[in-house]
Structures are given as structure tokens and as C-alpha cells.
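Figure 3 (text version): C-alpha cells given as input.
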């Protein structure tokens, strides 16, 4: 997922940026799936991520992204590109879990 999200622009300049957009988007997605709503609750989740895992995800050893960073990334992200990246990720998961014929039928909505 991080590889696909790395192609999503959030419009921020690279100067002084500690948190890649892909990492912030992935953390926000995980927090949302876990039931978090709003920037403040999403911002609380990254603080609980292990430092090793956080760094392997491409983030700097700086403190986790705060509410303002999360807000900026989520509000400035190119929605169409994000939608395409998530769609590609979900399709890849679907295709790896099913044979090609069955997956194609599922994508087309032909499976009950």
C-alpha cells in the first residue's frame, strides 16, 4: 500500500517535511479502519506505532505526525489519485486471493 500511496501528491513542498504523504495517508487509513473519526483521534494513533515499524514505513525518526500535519495531508491530497491508488490496492488483494476468472466476476459484480 505504501508503494501505491507514494504516488499520491498532497501539495506540500519537500522542504522541512518530516512525514511523507504516503506514511501519513497509510496511518490515517489504518486509524479510520480502526474506528477513529476526526483529525485529533487519528493523530493519537500514530503515537502508538512502534518506532521501528514507523521508520520502516518511510517516516523520519521525528515525532509522529500531529493533528495539523494529518489535516494538511488529508485536505490537500489529490482525491482522484488517492482513489485510484486505493482501488489498485484493493484489486490487487482481490486478485491474489482468488483465481483470475472468479476475481473478474467479483469485480464485475457477478458473484453473489
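Below: residues designed for each position.
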Amino acid at each position: 500500500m505504501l508503494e501505491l500511496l507514494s504516488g499520491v501528491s498532497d501539495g506540500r513542498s519537500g522542504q522541512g517535511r518530516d512525514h511523507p504523504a504516503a506514511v501519513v495517508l497509510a496511518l490515517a487509513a489504518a486509524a479510520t479502519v480502526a474506528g477513529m473519526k476526526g483529525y485529533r483521534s487519528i493523530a493519537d494513533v500514530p503515537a502508538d506505532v512502534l518506532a521501528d515499524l514507523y521508520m520502516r514505513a518511510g517516516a523520519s525518526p521525528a515525532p509522529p505526525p500531529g493533528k495539523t500535519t494529518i489535516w494538511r495531508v488529508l485536505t490537500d491530497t489529490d482525491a482522484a489519485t488517492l482513489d485510484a491508488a486505493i482501488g489498485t490496492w484493493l484489486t490487487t488483494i482481490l486478485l491474489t486471493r482468488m483465481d483470475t476468472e472468479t476475481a473478474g466476476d467479483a469485480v464485475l459484480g457477478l458473484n453473489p
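The CA atoms of residues 34 and 45 lie 9 Å apart.
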